[in-house]
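B., you asked whether I could sanity-check this one before it goes into the benchmark set. Here's the sequence:
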Amino acid sequence: MGNWVENEGLSIFVVLVWLGLNVFLFWWYYLVYDVPPKFFYTRVLLGRALALARAPAACLNFNCMLILLPVCRNLLSFLRGSSACCSTRIRRQLDRNLTFHKMVAWMIALHTAIHTIAHLFNVEWSVQARVEEKGTLAAVLSGLGDKPKESYVNFYRQTLATWKWVVGPMFLYLCERLVRFWRSQQKVVITKVVIHPFKTIELQMMKKGFKMEVGQYIFVKCPAVSKLEWHPFTLTSAPEEDYFSIHVRIVGDWTEGLFNACGCDKQEFQEAWKMPKIAVDGPFGTASEDVFSYETVMLVGAGIGVTPFASVLKSVWYKYCHDATNLKLKKIYFYWLCRDTHAFEWFADLLQSLEAQMQERNNAEFLSYNIYLTGWDETQATHFAVHHEEEKDVITGLKQKTLYGRPNWENEFKTIAGKHPGSRIGVFLCGPEGLADTLNKQSISNSEADPRGVHFIFNKENF
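And here's what the prediction gave me:
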């Protein structure tokens, strides 16, 4: 229960407050139109349909005020950076911005449906009052306001000042778009293009004033491919490096166009001036920035989802070499799940380098990694079995052998909990929702109720 509160408590509290405000606004504005004497004659005309139309309208104003805030990425990055003095529990809420954005959108859809249906009844009953026999109360009330300077009671003459609700968020979002436009106009230089196996390219770039943290992401536009499309990519470089880089796997029309625009389809060497113009927006903050807030972390990447951890592992190594005594992070458990062998090739080079350097410094225990191949055929299985006894792994070239199938997460969590009693262990995932649910449940079930016991804190990358 204690760790459920640690992982989900604040999120549940925020959602309950938001739902409570929706209920309060709905009920309050329903009473505003259903009870006071000033709307008595309107109720004679329309019954309670007016109150049922105005109540969701108030909720629509409230949610339309909120809908843009979770997608103001620069604002969220600023809040994440400025809240460095706050607990990781508070910062983790900012990483659930897209989930909240979707919830607000569904709430807007719900209240829009109620508002529309109620007004359909309003229109029907208003027209019915118009055609009633002259002299009836409904007919007289319906006719008020037809003459110049005559008072009226018709519901469609009343309104809420909607703009007062949305002007603030609209201003913030306008500023957000201006910042994005300004940054997208700044010059970006492609300094190096590296072609990795399995049609993956690495773009190393430089941009004046560009500052990043581990695990952050950027949006990239290549006008030579498309003048409108922006695509998100996780930064795979470390903040300590004098360039920033992304890895792009060629899987669609846009990435294929970028591949060709960079001259990767040609055999001859490409001059720097032939590189295409690139626009970059970002960087934007993610959950991976909190890696250095823990002494022990579990990093889980699925397929190309390993990219945020390239940045993390590089930065950890730079910090470790520079001043290991001031590095709070003491142990990394790294898990990488891939469907096919080709996906291992570009990232295995980084792991080989880290493995060799850790052994040189007699600290091979700092990084424990497990690589899982989740899909293979009979021919590959025979090949793996023949070479299993070799010193290095036949797939990755690492001393740590590749495992086949999927991890037993319950055993992994219990083993790590046993090795680090009384610790707060950060669990970081970049992968699919199904795996996120599994790791979140394991984080809760394998944490102790005692505040002094082991606690797994789950974090997920969202784009």
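One thing to flag: The first strand starts at residue 188 and ends at 196. Otherwise nothing jumped out at me.
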